[in-house]
Backbone:
């Protein structure tokens, strides 16, 4: 197992280098850059002539190293990341890219981890109930609601919930993570309660599809496990149904759920982008979207590199957890 972990870690280095190159090249492919937008603003808003604005933008490109070739820009960027942990400068937010990421990552983790934890636990419990009560009223109702939950896109669910809160329940403030009077206020009990009143909305919206997916996966796998020889043998030995269910069946039906956790981690870091934009949440998703739209190259590249790192770590952790819960799985 130790040799397997070491090999996986060593494989990460060339993988991250390859991904960083691909990300940097793809982001640079569209014509123009962030300085092109600044040049148009200088001409339209500041009233500078085309020659003056171009001269000013050329000086800015030289200052930030944007006048160099793409390979040189990439080498400078990746060198600063490896040696100093410096992900570059975000032109859109006018601050270092790592500051933009870290200040939004905390809210992303709170919302996404809460939604992911709730969707996983609730989905597993409903899936176990549906599998053990196959074709009952509860099973049919759960399956129908799961189809509905997977069919509606998250932004539509967000719009429906906002409409109901505003026009039906007369909520004074919907969207964001706090009311306007608490945005700049210091943390106290009143602000914490107001934060919880806003937090449940993105958590529920982000968790609906997860509950439906986990329920369907758990139900299907548990029904397959019930037909396995070791479950039939356990029942033939006279074991209680509760022991057969939780000690033999559920543990083996969890494999796809656990394997999916490694893939889900990047989505947790990235956050639900569309939902965050609709609800005006200060998470990483809208910042990543803005970086792509305005060609904030270093910020967008830093986001993609971070998501790749989390994906590799998540896959490694899911493999280790699978080997821990199932002694039949071994890695050489």
Residues:
């Amino acid at each position: 197992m130790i040799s397997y972990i070491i090999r996986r870690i060593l494989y990460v280095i060339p993988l991250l280098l390859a991904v960083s190159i691909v990300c940097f090249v793809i982001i640079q492919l569209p014509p123009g850059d962030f300085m092109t937008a600044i040049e148009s603003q200088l001409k339209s808003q500041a009233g500078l002539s085309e020659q003056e604005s171009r001269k000013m933008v050329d000086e800015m490109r030289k200052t930030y190293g944007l006048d160099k070739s793409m390979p040189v820009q990439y080498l400078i960027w990746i060198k600063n990341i490896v040696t100093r942990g410096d992900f570059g400068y975000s032109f859109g937010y006018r601050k270092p890219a790592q500051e933009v990421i870290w200040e939004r990552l905390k809210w992303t983790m709170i919302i996404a981890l809460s939604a992911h934890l709730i969707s996983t636990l609730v989905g597993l419990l409903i899936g176990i109930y549906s599998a053990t009560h196959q074709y009952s009223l509860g099973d049919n109702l759960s399956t129908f609601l799961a189809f509905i939950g997977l069919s509606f896109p998250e932004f539509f669910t967000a719009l429906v919930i906002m409409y109901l809160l505003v026009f039906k329940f007369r909520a004074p403030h919907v969207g964001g993570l706090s009311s306007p009077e608490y945005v700049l206020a210091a943390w106290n009990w009143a602000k914490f309660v107001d934060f919880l009143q806003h937090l449940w909305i993105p958590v529920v919206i982000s968790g609906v599809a997860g509950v439906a997916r986990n329920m369907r996966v758990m139900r299907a796998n548990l029904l397959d496990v019930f037909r396995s020889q070791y479950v039939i043998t356990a029942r033939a030995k006279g074991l209680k149904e509760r022991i057969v269910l939780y000690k033999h069946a559920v543990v083996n039906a969890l494999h796809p759920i656990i394997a999916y956790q490694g893939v889900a981690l990047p989505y947790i870091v990235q956050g639900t982008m569309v939902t965050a934009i609709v609800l005006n949440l200060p998470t990483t998703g809208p910042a990543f979207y803005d970086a792509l739209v305005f060609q904030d190259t270093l910020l967008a590249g830093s986001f993609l590199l971070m998501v790749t790192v989390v994906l590799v770590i998540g896959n490694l952790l899911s493999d280790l957890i699978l080997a821990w819960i199932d002694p039949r799985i071994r890695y050489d």
Notes: The mean pLDDT is 81. The two ends are 7 Å apart (CA to CA). Residues 107-325 form a domain with the MetI-like fold fold (CATH 1.10.3720.10).
